[in-house]
């Protein structure tokens, strides 16, 4: 089981500056390395307070200099918003800088306002990603980038920094051909379980398996990477505040899928939606609370969903940075050792 810290880098409060958020992210990654996490992910988003990080590769480069063991990666490079020639060269450079500690997350993107602002058609996002992937793979494995496609035409050219191999690959996207290609390459498929119990997330896993079967792949080809929101605290007041922050985060995430997100400047508004979970439901079901509660929820996920990777997000609460760092430390000291002891054999919980 591979366990990584996810960093969205949201601006939750007006009294937080981007410099403070990014600086605290580096501190979280250093702490995650000291606690024994395997890796750290950095998000890419644009034009809202949902994230102050438009360039996860810059965060990888910065954190590579601040760490020595932990692997680092973008989760994800929104490939349709980038020219692959820059991405392939920066990935090669990052592998050299980090001593080969880079993981690569690729995604199609899902926020219409980002595509509209960049002037990119969302309807072409899958095709653009596939061509970009071709160029990245060719460049990193052969050191050359010549390519003739519908979206990119690249004359044959060498690149100076190339590792000779692709970094371990993770995909965020739902198109069957991308799922199948990732599985054939030995990569992992991301789903966001978020606040859901494992039983509610099982249909997402089944959808991935159906796509693999349709492509002639065995179910054993599925390497499932799950993004989960967790917060460890024994303080009931803090626990409720974290649940309130989770609900705000769920609302924001959903609204970003609309044509125009509800925002004041860059700051996202918290807009209720039909069928949203209550705070009481989150306190009962989400992995927010004591180390034992969080460990039990994640063990349930492990046995039912059988992931090979967890991407764990702890910054949704909106609480001040020192309290988030304390929750991360509690997770590392009290929950992470329990997760390491989980049996890799699939064990079905009683229904």
TrEMBL record:
<protein>
    <submittedName>
        <fullName>LLM class flavin-dependent oxidoreductase</fullName>
    </submittedName>
</protein>
<dbReference type="Pfam" id="PF00296">
    <property type="entry name" value="Bac_luciferase"/>
</dbReference>
<keyword id="KW-0503">Monooxygenase</keyword>
<dbReference type="InterPro" id="IPR011251">
    <property type="entry name" value="Luciferase-like_dom"/>
</dbReference>
<feature type="domain" description="Luciferase-like">
    <location>
        <begin position="8"/>
        <end position="302"/>
    </location>
</feature>
<dbReference type="InterPro" id="IPR036661">
    <property type="entry name" value="Luciferase-like_sf"/>
</dbReference>
<dbReference type="InterPro" id="IPR050766">
    <property type="entry name" value="Bact_Lucif_Oxidored"/>
</dbReference>
<keyword id="KW-0560">Oxidoreductase</keyword>
């Amino acid at each position: 089981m591979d366990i990584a810290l996810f960093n969205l880098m949201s601006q939750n409060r007006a009294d937080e500056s981007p410099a403070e958020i990014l600086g605290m992210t580096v501190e979280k990654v250093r702490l995650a390395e000291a606690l024994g996490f395997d890796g750290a992910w950095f998000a890419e988003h644009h034009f809202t307070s949902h994230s102050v990080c438009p360039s996860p590769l810059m965060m990888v480069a910065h954190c590579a200099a601040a760490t020595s063991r932990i692997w680092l990666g973008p989760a994800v490079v929104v490939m349709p918003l980038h020219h692959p020639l820059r991405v392939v060269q920066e990935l090669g450079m990052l592998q050299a800088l980090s001593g080969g500690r880079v993981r690569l997350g690729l995604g199609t993107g899902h926020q219409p306002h980002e595509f509209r602002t960049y002037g990119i058609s969302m309807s072409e996002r899958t095709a653009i990603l596939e061509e970009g992937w071709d160029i990245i793979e060719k460049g990193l494995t052969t050191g050359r980038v010549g390519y003739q496609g519908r979206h990119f035409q690249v004359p044959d050219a060498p690149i100076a920094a190339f590792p000779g191999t692709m970094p371990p690959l993770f995909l965020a996207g739902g198109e069957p051909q991308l799922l199948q290609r990732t599985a054939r390459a030995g990569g992992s498929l991301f789903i966001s379980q978020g606040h859901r119990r494992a039983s509610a997330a099982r249909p997402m896993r089944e959808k991935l398996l159906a796509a693999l079967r349709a492509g002639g792949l065995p179910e054993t080809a599925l390497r499932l990477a799950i993004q989960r929101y967790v917060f460890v605290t024994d303080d009931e007041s803090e626990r409720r505040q974290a649940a309130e922050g989770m609900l705000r985060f769920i609302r924001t995430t959903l609204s970003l899928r609309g044509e125009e997100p509800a925002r004041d400047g860059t700051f996202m508004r918290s807009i209720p939606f039909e069928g949203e979970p209550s705070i009481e439901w989150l306190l009962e079901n989400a992995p927010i609370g004591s180390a034992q509660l969080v460990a039990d929820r994640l063990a349930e996920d492990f046995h039912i969903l059988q992931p090979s990777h967890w991407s764990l997000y702890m910054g949704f609460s909106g609480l001040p940075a020192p309290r988030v760092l304390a929750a991360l430390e509690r997770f590392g000291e009290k929950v992470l050792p329990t997760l390491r002891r989980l049996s890799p054999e699939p064990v079905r919980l009683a229904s």
